[in-house]
TrEMBL record:
This is endo-polygalacturonase. One of its GO terms (cellular component) is extracellular region. Keywords: Cell wall biogenesis/degradation, Disulfide bond, Glycosidase, Hydrolase, Repeat, Signal. Its EC number is 3.2.1.15.
Length: 354
């Protein structure tokens, strides 16, 4: 049973905003922290190479973006932006853009080699509201949503479309881990990797989002013994991705994937596989026989519809024999290549090869 979400948007508005402070450079941001400012407007700011735009230490504040935010070029490991604390409202004003200019790092390799690439933005928030932000061209990885609690994320635009022709790779939309009571809604992701990659957490909702050009919506089990439980993914569109939706657990991974529901998901022109459920995942691709240790329990695939291209496959299921309590109702057209399935719980009917 999904827990009820706190209306964190209303909660954040309870904080009294007594003054405003405009930030054009990092020194001014540090001054805003010292002053205890509660309304900070970031205007046409350029972050020097190798530095992080760091919004820690601003509990109870509203941070709003106006104009264009850019970052200097350097090969380094880190994040271009960090939001960490409690009671934040983070929002974009009309006409703003947070531009990572990722083409400077792109080399078709992403995190697998080549240039050392920073991640775009890291969020570790409690009782907070993030909305109306526009991100463009992540160097690699998009938004890390990590150890968040009672957070609502609405109407974000993550636009890495340039990466389709300029070498973008591993430009994930949302990477979610160790979160509780988080809702991501009304967002648009155009990228070259997972639209959502959720590896652990409880009571997470991903709804009314549009995913274009990437690797689909994924729940990933078996990282460091993590548990993904009570996850609802609903009312989303997955357009021209190679995969529609998938649940994948790590080869030899330990943990639990339980209570995962995909409901009312429209697939459009998926090139490879509509629905994937596997138990032998590695970052380099599935390998070997699926392993036990991270069972997939109470999985629901309901009203998954749309089309897979002719040479693709509707369903691929390849898990160990510890899966249980699945409900499956898909209405996918096309995908004439049939693949064999393994480990489907008894009583569940899925169209597969033999």
């Amino acid at each position: 049973m999904m827990a009820e979400f706190v209306n964190v948007g209303a909660l954040c508005l309870l904080f009294t905003i007594v003054s405003g402070f405009d930030v054009w450079n990092l020194d001014q941001l540090e001054q805003a922290k010292k002053n205890g400012e509660k309304l900070i407007t970031v205007k046409d700011l350029h972050v020097p190479a190798g530095k992080t735009l760091d919004f820690q230490g601003l509990n109870g504040s509203t941070i709003q973006f106006a104009g264009r935010v850019t970052f200097g070029y350097q090969e380094w490991r880190g994040h271009l932006m960090i939001f960490k604390g409690a009671g934040y409202t983070v929002k974009g004003l009309p006409g703003h853009l947070i531009d990572g200019e990722g083409h400077r790092w792109w080399d078709t390799l992403g995190g697998n080699g080549g240039k050392l690439k920073p991640g775009f933005a890291y969020f570790q928030l409690e009782n907070s509201y993030v909305r109306d932000l526009k991100f463009k061209n992540a160097p690699a990885l998009g938004l890390a949503i990590n150890a968040c609690k009672n957070v609502q994320i609405d109407n974000l635009d993550i636009d890495n479309a340039d990466g389709h022709t300029k070498g973008g790779h591993n430009t994930d939309g949302f990477d979610v881990a160790r979160c509780e009571n988080v809702k991501i809604s009304g967002c648009r992701v155009n990228n070259q990797d997972d639209c959502l990659a959720l590896s652990s957490g409880k009571n997470i909702v991903f709804s009314n989002n549009v995913c274009i050009g990437g690797h689909g919506i994924a729940v990933i089990g078996g990282y460091d013994g993590g548990i993904a439980e009570d996850i609802l993914i609903k009312d989303c569109k997955v357009i021209k991705n190679n995969i529609g939706v998938r649940v994948k657990t790590m080869l030899n991974g330990k943990g639990l994937v339980k209570g995962i529901t995909f409901d009312n998901i429209q697939l459009q022109d998926i090139s490879e596989i509509g629905i994937v459920v596997i138990g032998n995942y590695l970052n380099s691709g599935p390998r070997g026989q699926p392993t036990k240790g991270c069972p997939i329990q109470k999985l629901q695939m309901t009203n998954i519809y749309g089309n897979v291209l002719k040479n693709g496959t509707k369903h691929l299921v390849w898990v160990a024999d510890d899966a249980s309590n699945w409900i499956w109702n898909s209405k996918i057209q096309g995908g004439e290549r049939l693949r064999p399935c393994q480990g489907i719980p008894k009583g569940v009917n899925i169209e597969c090869g033999k």
